[in-house]
Design brief:
The protein is an alpha/beta fold and about 300 residues long. The chain contains twelve helices and twelve strands.
């Protein structure tokens, strides 16, 4: 399959591109810089110059492909409405050339769209008032193509997609611990975070492109809920620092901004049982705590 990929040079993208190439697929990937193009070429992909705002470039990439994988997401986090519109417009642009073709369109979202406080499944509705509600419009734009002859599916990734050279939420937590001299969790730390290894996530994206039925919502989750207390304690042991429990108000001042305090205090376990059964996906790489103990998290430079 000839796959057009956005976000192929980002955090998770290179692992996905490598997985697709290793499986025999031909990959053309969006590149907005010479650096990104060189990285994609090294992975065996053909760079396609453009950006999410260059709709002609997105359209051309989708028209020439037999399937589309959309992972890119970005913009100004101080203007979530603009980010939402930008992503939805990109998805609509990528999906239209695939209409009535039966070709796959796979779009990335996150499990933080789900309701807090209970284990959610792939069949539950996202929370329109949740901390990641700005991703819901993109999900709906993608799934709308399932009624227009596109094999459209959404992959919701865990908030922690871990592996070497991570620069997401966990490295930010580690950087804060180094800066403040303590590794903190919010409240008693029993709130749960889903996690998935980057290489397992890459396999899921490939399976979604190859096999996911139209209208599928998939959960890219290897562990349904790792407690923040266990994460904080593992980091603290590695850095030889104490752990502390913070109130939500204290956490708002401790972390980089109040939003990060909300994220680190979020209780959002999710199940991936349906995804595993539907696609035969079986995560097999290191767990988050194993990666924290034996990976590069505590030795890598601060993000």
């Amino acid at each position: 399959m000839h796959v057009f990929v956005t976000g192929g040079s980002g955090q998770t993208g290179p692992a996905v591109v490598a997985e697709l190439v290793a499986a025999g697929h031909t990959v053309t990937a969006l590149a907005r810089s010479d650096t990104a193009a060189a990285r994609l070429e090294a992975l065996g992909a053909t760079p396609h110059q453009g950006s999410l705002d260059d709709l002609d470039s997105l359209r051309d990439g989708a028209e020439a492909a037999e399937g589309v994988l959309h992972m890119a997401y970005g913009g100004d986090f101080s203007d979530l409405d603009d980010m939402m519109r930008r992503d939805r417009t990109a998805i609509e642009t990528l999906g239209r050339p695939l209409e009535h073709s039966g070709k796959p369109l796979v779009v990335t979202s996150g499990t933080l769209v789900m309701p807090a406080g209970r284990e959610s499944t792939e069949h539950d509705e996202p929370d329109p008032a949740g901390i990641a509600a700005f991703r819901i419009a993109g999900e709906r734009a993608c799934l709308g193509f399932a009624d227009r002859g596109v094999r459209a599916s959404v992959v919701r990734l865990a908030p922690t997609v871990h592996g070497p050279q991570d620069h997401g939420f966990i490295p930010m937590l580690i950087a804060t611990a180094r800066k403040t001299g303590v590794c903190a969790h919010v409240g008693d730390g029993t709130n749960r975070w889903p996690a998935v290894h980057r290489l397992d996530a890459a396999v899921l994206f490939r399976l979604a492109l190859e096999e996911a039925p139209p209208g599928s919502v998939l959960h890219g989750v290897g562990e349904s809920g790792v407690t923040m207390r266990s994460i904080a304690q593992t980091i603290a042991r590695g850095l030889e620092l104490p752990t502390v429990a913070l109130t939500p108000d204290e956490a708002a001042g401790h972390f980089a901004n109040p939003f990060m305090a909300t994220v680190y205090g979020f209780d959002g376990p999710v199940s991936s049982a349906y995804t595993r059964e539907l696609l035969g996906w079986s995560p097999r790489h290191a767990t988050l705590l194993e990666d924290l103990e034996h990976g590069d998290y505590l030795t890598a430079p601060a993000p």
